[in-house]
Amino acid sequence: MRRTNPQRKSCKDVFNAFLVKWAIYAGFFEFPRLRPTFDVPSRIIAFSKALSCKDYDQWIHFYEYDYLFERVWRKPRQFLSLFKKFKGVILPDFSLYRDMPLVMQLWNIYRSRAIGHWLQSNGIKVIPNIRYGDKRTFRICCEGLEKHGVIAVGSHGTMKHKTDREIFLNGLDVVISILQPSVIVVYGTAPDKYFKKYIDAGIKIIQFESDYSLSHKEGE
User: Fold this and answer.
1) What are the sequence ranges of the domains in the chain?
2) Do residues 144 and 33 touch, judged by C-beta distance below 8 A?
3) pTM for the full predicted model
4) Of 26, 53, 55, 178, which is most buried with the most CB atoms under 10 A?
5) CA–CA distance, 220 with 217 (Å, rounded to integer)
6) Contact partners, residue 82, CB within 8 Å, separation at least 6
């Protein structure tokens, strides 16, 4: 663990180093540490919809296409006042594809955690989003997070095909064994067939249907 170096006065901050100015790092890859969260959302809203929403009694999430929230990484200060209006933020779900080079998978985990550290530093409640790609990231994605807190996962798009489902569930087993969360917020389906064992172990599952599923139900 270590603190960041003082900001270099003569350099333009193209890497958003200000996000982790006072961070303490964890693990070999030095993800910023986050304080555990014990708050549980009762309602959530996608970032792209939150931009024009006046109902602030909910948490912002990023379970949508990356291009819709990449701007948060490019210009995070621009959205700070928005985030402060809502109950909290489930951290960005930057994509991790299994065919990505490992360094790209790590970079997207880092970006989410860096934003999380900065939001916490500004008094905003955050829930870490747990996203892993291939099995090399199952344990790595837990670095910098405390045990027994609230975590969030996105299951949307992971249950339909056997290979995707197995990788998602195998990764989740590893994450739960390491972090031992008290609550898991699930965006997408959470079938009893796969999640009952976590409930039986004393973990509370808070499930929200995806916007995609809700839109199809409305059209029926």
Assistant:
1) 17-218
2) yes
3) 0.93
4) 26
5) 5
6) 50, 51
